[in-house]
Input
Amino acid sequence: MIIRIDSLTFRYPNGTTALDGVSFGVGAGERVAIVGANGAGKSTLARHLVGIERPASGTIEIDGRPTDGLGIAELARTVGFVFQNPDDQLHAASVVKEVGFGPRNLCFPAARRAELVESALRRTGLTAARDTHPHHLSLGERKRVALASVLAMDTPVVVLDEPTTGQDHASIVLLGNLVDSLAADGRTVLAITHDMDFCVEHFDRVIVLANGRVAWDGPVADWPAHVADTADESLELPQLTRLGRRLGWEGPVTTVPGFLDRLSSGTDPAPLPSAQTRIPLRDR
Output
């Protein structure tokens, strides 16, 4: 396990318990989506992985090392964290300087720094914007700059906080392909997300947090059945799953290829419900 969390508890200074006995492990190369309602503890959990927050009790191990006593700079060699708001981590006068900041601080040799920076710019579609000031870019582009700055640090673990927020379709496709390629390279990707479509298309496993606890942990293929059975209104089925249910198909469909396979197999959809039929909100 590259990440091992055991009985993690965290309380804010006002006494609010954000995490309450959270335990799970993540293997190298896994793609794990962490979902749940606002305030469930998702981002708080992610900040623990890079040392921004520290546990009240419980333990965290990253790549076999307890995080107790490890500073943010040391943890940054293993875990790269992309903030939900890119402006929280962008400070350089150009995109290329921003992307080069991390590997320079990690004291990588010049040749390796240059290679990592160029690769990160290329993989995030930012090569043409290399000399642009980050704050002259759109929100979606700034999010990609923040992502590129983490990729250039070449960490074995990448944590993404709401990566698809503010992104257009082309950027989400690029991001999804990047998540897939990182996993293919053996790197671990964790995403804090409300985007269920992105989750089922690009992740292997889903962890649900509710009231600071792990409410469910399982393979993404079992996720639609869990959502259909739970009373948690903050969880939503993927769009294609909802459409398949409206068409009367047996079993969940979650991806475009799976949906097209159902269509090409000649599956006969059931009649659509009448306008008077009430459709539960989570199925719309």
